[in-house]
Write a structure and sequence with these properties.
The structure is a single chain. This protein is 51% helix and 8% strand. The protein is an alpha+beta fold. The strands form four sheets. Strands 3, 4, 5, 6, 11, 12, 13, 14 and 15 form a nine-stranded mixed β-sheet that branches. A two-stranded antiparallel ribbon has the order 1-2. A two-stranded antiparallel ribbon has the order 7-8. Residues 787-800 have a biased composition (Polar residues).
Length: 1186
């Protein structure tokens, strides 16, 4: 990615013109007064007339009211009816234009280079003009709804801004006139967007407005303002309500500016955001991980204060609130899973993986959890009932005495202890400013790190008990002993205590802080009574403290983010612009205004923390172990206070993982894990290097880094390190194989190792077919195959591994690529081929075909020459031998029958070696008849017979026979070793495979080895026979890959010293390794199944070298830090505006350039698609953290 200079504009030049066309449309509600081409004047005149129509029609009613010809209500009704008629006319014209355009289509040559579609206008009311100005609605219901709503808005708006009303509010005719004129501008923008043409809003929640919800956004806000005014009109003289109406009339004037700046939520997001805010701050709940969960939880939570209001007994109220607060704070979806029969099923497991890997540690519900919850619920209800019945006062008392005093002091002690125990769990204390001297540093060994962390784990366990068991019961005692519970039959106290009893369980740490603040205020007041504060009641006091504390934390986080942007605009050279000094001086001089803007942002809407529903969820196995580590860290408090919307970043080697808290409840936490791109771009490298520096300053020894003062030098960074978590992850090691794969000695040794590996696999496959192999068939394979159905091969029944992976190769399984001219050879030719160098493998991606599940395996073929006829597809059931006498050899090499009297064996002529076994147990190790019909001359096989490893065959046969037979195993093994017929049979099959792979003499070059390893086997004489025996082909390919791994190991560690060592090594390959290609499905399955080791051979075309890649599953320390949540949401909001509104999707745009402090490039990647581009994302994971 190209580094951008400091003075690059925020929008590219070709997008600036587009932006200045769209932004005036947004401000005015939809009129398009600036086009990229010439348009007749009547196009602009028509838009002006339609824009001012509501003002003209409303002015008629206002004039008649001012002349006292009509009352204000009748004048408003008249204006509304007139606007209704005008809206009907506009919709009728739009419908007529739509039908007319459907019947008559104008032919023309479109300009594909134009930024927007050019319209040819023919008449001021022509179909093209009407269609351009008023496109119309897509749904008939919206036509009716929007038309009626337009009349209502005009009528109520006329009543809202009548001059008499405005004069009465402000007592000045001049002010009333100004408000009247500007208010009608607001009304006109809303009416135009509703009826004529909808403006593109800057605040966009959905990428597409499918159901035409956007036109309703502006009228909804106008109706809200009018509703407050109507309440002031009909409720009598209420000073507070009259003041609110005066303020809202002024705010009404700037609504177009607020809509244009995106400070007001669109309608679809407003409903969800409002429910979330009411659930969290009004009812004590938590943000939900999905919209469906939010709707369900909000509906259940609203019923609680309603029922509380009508319960006559205060004891019944306390018990009811106690029970409902506890139950609603749990993950209720697990109760449905448990009742449905899946008591141990993890929520969301279906989206975790598509393989057979073990499920992640999601939140589960079983009998033990039910008993624990039941015990906690009964204990809490008993405590609350007894304390309220016997010790609760009838009136609120001072905390200096009474039954609440001891509980209040206990809450203060619990808060201090829990806070201190949480602080020492992380690498920094006091908000990330100072290094924690108790945290172990400078240790790469996981075992040593765990030993040094035992003290912190003990402290975390104590905190867990205090926070999850002791604190809730102490807070319940405080609420049950409160005197304001006696006054519950008011709406405010019902809502307040509903929230108080709920938040005790939903977020115990936050509830403890809020109660300590309330207690501290009461203790500070002493005997002095605070009339305004004390009259609210404890429940409402806790509600206000919770709201203020949340907004205060948001303010501080936003202020830190704003200061980081300002300071780095000067300190970071890559971010410094020519106007940076002027901007800094201006912000310093207008510091109060800057603070007011940041403070006002607390009232603006923000996107929720829920994930979109239409997502593809994929997750590698590493994240399952990461979820286990996160569960322990959440329980100990190593990552600080967990609040929904918190973001964390994990770093290990070259991998970056993004963790987001979606939901928080009693004993569980819902997270989303994303993986960011692994390709190292320049921007990615700059930010990743700064992330490494931040983590090194926190987790390395301070004396090595010169940080003797113990202060976090990266405090201003968006990332604050928290803890290092032991996680089972794959360590990635890559090696250049120069000197190994190109060594002639190693290539000669590869032939012998291939035969040994193939013999071992053939014998093991024989035993495995009889279902008597001690290792079992559920461990998977490490090479190319897995368990599948059992196709019939000859006279023997062969059981292939399940989900057999067939490697799509360039061997001509259905059409051979011969050295001579052949039409089918063009199907494998490409312009990218290197005719003079190593041939890279093409189309070697491992495929899992649908037929594999049904017991069939199909070798995929490459593309053929366009226009050619595939002989195999036409004559797949015909033998081609009768065509030979006619001279139709189809490009096959000629055979001199006089010089070669021997005829190669075929399936019709019989086998080369018959089953003349001297041992009755040899049938166990017999091979299918189809494997013995290689079209090779017997003399050719006889010449290669010395290559067959007979000593290794006897050793392997003896070991496997001992593993199978239970009685007389020694005699049976001896008899099997002496059976010459069995030995000849395996020798024939092994040598036939050797010839078919082209290794008759030796493997000649690294490129040949690489192609065979990838399954891209060049044509040989027996290749067709081998490809037709699909299971044997898989075993041969697997044996070759095993032999190459043996070559790699022996070149690195030394040669094998004994046959026993070789046997154990092959056993280890089969059990603990996957040896194949990264692009194969088997590699993905191996990762999901958590194979301990994975090996792959690669070819770097740019460097011309061959590489070996080894993944090792081991426990390593993954460093995790907390990100500035407001900074993340701010950058995501800018990303949404830039892509959805400004449509600035340039890959080199300014907003995705590297910013080492804000981590802008990483943050953009982690956004939800289509805005971001994470390489994988998990479903919401419910992790237990009790």
């Amino acid at each position: 990615m190209v580094r951008m200079g400091p003075d690059v504009p925020l929008l590219n030049e070709y997008k600036q013109e587009f932006f200045w066309k769209r932004f005036p449309q947004t401000v005015l509600g939809g009129p398009r007064f600036k086009l990229g081409y010439c348009a007749p004047p009547y196009v602009y005149v028509n838009q002006v007339v339609l824009f001012l129509t509501p003002w003209l029609l409303g002015g008629i009613g206002t004039l008649l009211c001012q002349l006292q010809l009509l009352e204000d209500l009748h004048a408003a009704m008249l204006s509304g009816l007139l606007m209704l008629g005008a809206a009907v006319g506009v919709q009728a014209l739009a419908l007529y234009a739509t039908r007319r355009n459907g019947m008559v289509e104008r032919l023309g040559v479109p300009n594909i280079l134009a930024d927007e579609e050019e319209v040819e206008f023919t008449h001021c009311v022509g179909p093209e003009t009407v269609r351009f100005i008023a496109p119309g609605k897509r749904f008939g219901l919206n036509v009716v709804l929007h038309t009626v709503l337009a009349g209502a808005i005009c009528g109520l708006g006329t009543w809202y801004v009548l001059l008499g009303r405005l004069t009465a509010l402000y007592g000045s005719v001049g002010v009333a006139l100004v408000v009247f004129v500007l208010s009608w501008v607001t009304l006109c923008t809303a009416e135009y967007s509703l009826i004529v043409n909808t403006a593109t809003e800057t605040a966009t929640f959905q990428a597409q407005d499918t159901y035409e919800i956007t036109p309703l956004t502006r009228p909804l806000y106008i109706l809200t303002f009018i509703a407050v005014d109507l309440a002031d009109r009909f409720t009598g003289p209420v000073p507070e309500l009259q003041l609110t109406s005066q303020v809202l009339h002024v705010v009404f004037l700037v609504l177009p500016l607020l809509w244009a700046l995106g400070m007001l939520s669109p309608l679809d997001a407003l409903l969800l955001w409002g429910m979330e805010q009411a659930l969290v701050f009004g009812l004590g709940g938590s943000p939900m991980s999905s919209n469906l969960r939010l709707l369900g939880m909000f509906a259940m939570s609203v019923c609680v204060p309603v029922c509380t209001f009508f319960i006559p007994s205060t004891l019944g109220v306390v018990l009811f609130l106690m029970a409902m607060g506890f139950l609603l704070s749990l993950d209720l979806s697990q109760f449905g899973t448990y009742c449905g029969g899946g008591s141990r099923g993890a929520h969301g497991d279906s989206g975790w993986r598509r393989g057979a890997s073990p499920a992640p540690p999601s939140w589960r519900l079983g009998c033990s959890e039910l008993l624990l919850y039941l015990g906690l619920l009964l204990g809490a209800m008993t405590e609350a009932g007894l304390l309220h019945h016997f010790l609760s006062p009838s009136q609120p008392q001072n905390l200096a005495w009474g039954s609440q005093a001891a509980v209040s002091y206990l809450l203060i002690v619990l808060f201090i202890v829990c806070w201190a125990l949480r602080e020492i769990q992380g690498t920094y204390v006091f908000g990330g400013v100072f290094l924690n001297p108790l945290y172990p540093r400078g240790m790469a060994n996981v075992r040593v790190f765990k030993q040094r962390s035992r003290g912190l784990h003990v402290a975390g366990a104590i905190r867990r008990v205090l926070l999850n068991l002791v604190s809730p019961f102490a807070m319940i005692a405080f609420l049950a002993l409160d005197g304001s519970v006696q006054q519950l039959h008011t709406a405010s106290l019902s809502v307040g205590f509903t929230r108080a009893f709920r938040v005790v369980w939903q977020s115990s740490e936050d509830a403890l802080l809020q109660m300590v603040v309330v207690v501290s205020v009461r203790l500070a007041a002493g005997d002095t009574r605070l009339p305004g504060w004390d009259s609210l009641g404890t429940g409402v006091q806790l509600l206000l403290v919770g709201l203020l504390s949340d907004r205060l934390l948001q303010f501080l986080s936003k202020l830190k983010f704003a200061l980081a942007v300002l300071v780095t605009s000067w300190t970071e050279k890559k971010q410094r612009r020519q106007s940076a000094g002027t901007l800094l001086a201006l912000n310093a001089s207008l510091c109060p205004l800057l603070l007011s803007v940041v403070a006002s942002a607390q009232l603006a809407w923000a996107r929720g923390h829920r994930l979109p529903l239409s997502r593809l969820h994929l997750l590698p196995a590493d994240s399952g172990s990461l979820a286990c580590a996160l569960r322990s860290a959440f329980a100990r408090g190593s990552l600080g206070a967990l609040t929904p919307g918190s973001h964390f970043l994990g770093r290990f080697q070259d991998r970056v993982v993004w963790i987001m808290i979606l939901e928080r409840g009693y004993g569980y936490c819902t997270v989303n894990i994303k993986g960011l791109e692994l390709q190292e771009t320049s921007c990615h490298t700059v930010e990743a290097r700064r992330v490494d520096e931040v983590f090194e300053g926190a987790f390395e020894r301070p004396e090595r880094l010169g940080l003797n003062q113990g202060i976090n030098l990266h405090w201003g960074n968006a990332l604050t390190p928290c803890a290092a978590l032991p996680v089972r992850v794959y360590s990635d090691a890559r090696n250049v194989l120069s000197g190994i794969i190109d060594s002639h000695d190693n290539l000669r040794k590869l032939q012998d190792d291939f035969l040994k590996a193939l013999v071992w696999l053939l014998l093991r496959n024989c035993v495995q077919r009889r279902k008597a192999f001690p290792w079992g068939t559920d461990e998977g394979t490490g090479g190319g195959g897995r368990k599948s159905q059992s196709p019939q091969l000859g006279q023997s029944t062969v059981t292939q591994p399940a989900e057999a992976v067939m490697v799509e190769s360039n061997i001509s399984s259905l059409r051979f690529r011969r050295d001579s001219s052949s039409l089918t050879s063009f199907g494998d030719w490409s312009d990218d081929d290197d005719l003079f160098g190593p041939q890279p493998a093409r189309r070697t991606v491992a495929l899992v075909s649908t037929e594999a599940q049904l017991g069939h395996t199909v070798l995929q073929t490459g593309p053929s020459l366009p226009g050619s006829v595939e002989m195999d597809s036409l004559f797949e059931n015909m033998a081609l031998q009768p065509l030979q006498p006619l001279g139709l050899g189809l490009g096959l090499p000629a055979v001199d029958k006089g010089r070669n009297p021997e005829v190669p064996p075929t399936e019709s002529s019989g086998t080369l070696v018959h089953e003349n076994f001297s041992c009755p147990h040899s049938e166990l190790f017999s091979l299918p008849s189809g494997w013995r019909t290689a079209p090779l001359l017997p003399s050719r096989l006889q010449q290669l017979r010395p290559l067959f490893p007979e000593e290794w065959f006897r050793f392997t046969l003896g070991r496997l026979a001992l593993a199978v037979q239970d009685e007389a195993s020694e005699d049976v093994a001896k008899a099997l070793k002496e059976d010459g017929g069995l030995r000849d049979l395996h020798a024939q099959v092994a040598l036939s495979c050797l010839i078919s792979l082209g290794a008759e003499s030796a493997f000649t070059s690294p490129s040949y080895v690489y192609r065979v390893y990838c399954g891209d086997v060049p044509w040989t004489e027996g290749l067709k026979w081998l490809s037709e025996n699909k299971e044997l082909y898989q075993l041969a390919l697997k044996a070759f890959r095993y032999s190459f791994k043996l070559l790699f190991d022996q070149a690195s560690l030394g040669p094998m010293e004994s046959l026993e060592e070789l046997f154990s090594t092959l056993e280890e390959y089969e059990r603990d390794w996957y040896i194949g290609l990264v692009a194969e499905r088997g590699w993905q399955d191996g990762v999901l199944q958590e194979k301990p080791f994975l090996f792959s051979l690669g070819h770097d075309l740019t460097m011309g070298t061959y590489t070996g890649r080894v993944l090792s599953l081991q426990e390593q320390l993954v460093q995790v830090g907390r990100l500035n949540g407001e900074g993340v949401r701010g950058q995501w909001a800018n990303l949404s505006w830039e892509l959805l509104y400004a449509t600035n999707d340039d890959e080199e745009r300014y907003s995705i350039q590297a910013h080492p402090i804000m981590l802008r490039n990483l943050t953009v990647q982690a956004a939800d698609p289509p805005l971001g581009y994470p390489i994988y994302s998990s479903v919401p994971l419910h992790l237990p953290c009790f």
